Amino acid sequence: MESYPRINYLQTLPNYRLFLIFDNGEIKIYSLSERLESPAFAPLKDEALFNTARLANGGYGVIWNDELDLSEYELWVNGVEVSKISALVAKVA
Question: Assign residue 90 a region: left if phi > 0, alpha if psi is -120 to 50, beta otherwise?
C-alpha cells in the first residue's frame, strides 16, 4: 500500500480553501468549493464551521467534527502544489 505525506500545518483560507504544508516540504492549496455541492459537505458552507478545521492526530487528514473530514490522500492527490519549503527558504537566504 502506497503511503502519502502527512500534513504538518493547516490554515483555512477565503473561498473554502485549505493551505497545507506536508511533512515532505510540499505546500498545497486544496479547494472545497466543488465538494460543498454534495450533501455530505454542504454544512461547510457555514464559514464559521469551515474555519474550525483542524489536523487529525498524526497529520492523517483534516477534521471539522465527527461527520466531516478529509484524508491526507485526498488533500495530497487533489491539492494544487504552490511551492516547496526548500524553494522558499532558498529565496529568502
Answer: alpha
